[in-house]
Amino acid sequence: MVLNLLLVSSIIKSTFGVVTTGLWLIPLMLATITYFRYDRLDPESRPIDQQIFLKEYDFIVVGSGSAGAVVANRLTEIQPWKVLLLEAGPDENEISDVPALAAYLQLSKLDWQYKTEPSDRACLGMKNNRCNWPRGKVLGGSSVLNYMLYVRGNRYDYDHWESLGNPGWGFKDVLHYFKKSEDNRNPYLNKNKYHQTGGLLTVQESPWHTPLVAAFVEAGTEIGYDNRDINGEQQAGFMIAQGTIRRGSRCSTAKAFLRPIRLRPNLHISMNSHVTKVVINPVTKRATGVEFVKNGKLFRINARKEVILSAGAINSPQVLMLSGVGPKSHLESHGIKVIKDLPVGENLQDHVGMGGLTFLVDKPVAIVQDHFNPTSLTYQYVLNERGPMTTLGGVEGLAFVHTKYSNKSIDWPDIQFHMAPASINSDNGAQVKKVLGLKERVYNDVYKPIGNKDSWTIMPLLLRPRSRGWVRLKSKNPFQYPLINANYFDDPLDIKTLVEGAKIALRVADARVFKQFGSRVYRKHLPNCKHLKLLSDEYLECQARTISMTIYHQSGTCKMGPAWDQEAVVDPRLRVYGISGLRVIDASIMPTVSSGNTNAPVIMIAEKGADLIKEDWLTNPEYRNADKS
Fold first, then answer.
1. 275 is in an annotated binding site
2. d(CA 598, CA 98)
3. Three-state DSSP class for residue 459
4. Is the distance from CB of 582 to CB of 575 less than 8 angstroms?
C-alpha cells in the first residue's frame, strides 16, 4: 500500500504540481482505486504507445479525442487497413477516472490550457478579461476533461444542417449514429426507439443524487415543463442528467473505443506526438502524410489513402493553417506558402453561460467538502461504485427552456440549464476559482464570505449564439498557441436571450418545492455591478458579462457546407475543399453548434464520418482506382 501511495503522490505532483488543501481527499481515494479495483475492473488495460513506425499507413488520424478515438476504432475494423493514431498528450490517469474530480483536471498537463483574447464585452470578472478554455491534451481528448453529460442536441439542429446544403445530416440520418455507439444502462430508457444497448459507449445516470436535483425537476413542472428524456422525442423539459460513466467511473472515448482494440495489429497509437503539419503536395494538392514531434525527434510518416484531422475546433484549424490551408492573407502574413485559400478558423462558436447564480440552503444537502468523511467517501466510491464522487463533474440536472425570443410553436428551446448541488463557493476557493480564472476581488468580495456553506446553482447557457469568433495563428511556430477570439455577445440579441434565461432560472429556484430546504438567492453584488439594482435585467446582464463561462463546446471552425457556401471548409462528406486525401472529423465541421453539450454529437459525427470513409474506399470506383495507381 505504501508503494501505491507513492504512485498516487507522483501522479498528483506530475499533474497538478503540488497538493493543495483543496485536494485533501484525492490521495486516499486514488491509492484505494489503484489497490482495489483499477486493473481488475479494466481488463482491456491501457493502449500501447507505439515507438517504432511504419513508413506508410493507409490512414493517419490526428487527435484521439471524442472523434479521433471513434474514427480509429471503426477504420481498423477493416483488417487490411493500417491506421496510425497520433495524440499530443499522454494516457489518462486515475484522477480522470473519478467523475466528481473533473475540475481538478483543468489547468493540468492533460489540458492545452487555452485562453481567449481579452474582451471588453465578456469575461470581465476573469484575470485580464480572458476566459480559460480547457481542451483535452490526453488520449481521449476532452472526453477525459469534460463533465460527461450525454446530450444529443435537438432534431432541428440537424435538419437545419441538411437545409444548408448538407444531405445525409438530417435528424433521421444521424439518429442511427447516435444509437450505434450507445450502451444505455438506464432501464427506463434503453428499450425505446431513441436509445440502444450494446454499443461501446456506456450511458447512465450517476448512481448517487442529492435531494436538490429531484426538487429541480419538480420545480420545472411548477413552471410548465415536463420531466422528460431530453434525448428522446422532445427536448424542452427537465431531467436528471445522463452521462458517459461506467460502474461509477468516467467512460471516455479512449476507454470506450481504444482500450478494447489495443491489440488490433492494424492499429498503432502514438502518444506525446505533436503534429506540426499535414504534408501536402503543392502541385497535385494531395495530402501525403504528416510531420510530428515525439521525444524531441521529428517524424514524417506517409498516408496512402487519407489524413484525418480530429484535433478539435482549436487544433484542427491551427494544423490546417500551418500546412498552407487557410485564409490567404493571414497565412502570407506569417510567411506560410498558401496551398489552398479557405476560411479556416472562422465561424467559431461556443455555448456561453452565466455563472455565479448561487442559492443558499439551510439543510446539509449540497456537495461541500467539509461534510464528507474521506474514509466513507472512498469506501462508497471504490467498493460500491456509489457516493458523491460519482456525480457528473458535480452537475446533476439538465433542462431546456424557451425564452420570449424563441418560437414556442416548435420544440427548439434557446436556453439550457445546468443544475449543480454546489456553487463557486463550495470548495472554499481551492480549485473552482482557479479553473474559472476569477479575479481575486470578485471571489473575495462575493464568494469567500460563504465559503463551504451549503448552496446550489443553476447555470443558464445560450444554445444558439448568433455571435461568431475566430481562431488564427499567432505565428508559424507549431508549438505556439493560436489566438482565440470568442467574440461573446457581439450580437446584442445573445446577451438579451441569456438574461431572459437567467430570469427563468430564478423562477425555477423560487419554486415551492425548494422552500423545504430554506433555499434563497444569495444577495451579494458583484463589485463591478454595484451601481445596478440586484437581479434587475441590467444587473443580470452585468453578471453575464462578468462571470462569462465557457461550456467547453467550441465548434464550427472548419465549417461543413456545399461548394457554393463561401464559408465552407469541408464538403458534406467532410473532405477539405481543393485538397484530396484530407478530411476533418470533429466539432469544427458543425455549421452551427448543436443545442446542448457537444460530446455526444461529436461521437456521432465520428461514427458517420468513419462510415463515409468506408463507403468511399470500399464502394466508390473512383477511390478504388486511385488506390491501385
1. yes
2. 21
3. strand
4. yes
**Residue 213 marked as a ligand binder:** no
In angstroms, the CA 115 to CA 411 distance is 34
pLDDT in tens, 123-156: 999 999 999 999 999 999 999 999 999 999 999 9
Whether 553 is a known active-site residue: answer yes
Cell of 106: 483543468
54 confidence band (pLDDT: 50, 70, 90)? very high
Positions of CATH 3.50.50.60 in the chain: 37-92+148-176+253-347+556-629
Parallel, antiparallel, or unpaired: how do β-strands 397-401 and 548-550 relate? unpaired
Q: Half-sphere exposure of 563 toward its Cβ, with a 13 Å CA cutoff? A: 2
How many C-beta atoms lie closer than 10 Å to residue 207's C-beta?
A: 15
- Identify the residue whose cell numbers are 450507445: 182
Superfamily of domain 117-132+207-240+351-550: Glucose Oxidase, domain 3 (3.30.560.10)
- 3-class SS of residue 540: helix
- Name the pTM for this structure: 0.94
- Cα–Cα distances in Å, from 90 out to 245, 343, 606? 21, 31, 22
- DSSP class of residue 46 equals P
> Which pLDDT tens digit goes with each residue over 600-627?
999 999 999 999 999 999 998 888 777 7
| Mean pLDDT for the stretch of residues 564-578 | 98
Domain spanning 37-92+148-176+253-347+556-629: which CATH class is it, in words? alpha beta
299-318 in b/e form (b: 16+ CB < 10 A) is: bebebebbbbbbbbbbbbbb
Which residue ranges does the chain devote to CATH 3.30.560.10? 117-132+207-240+351-550
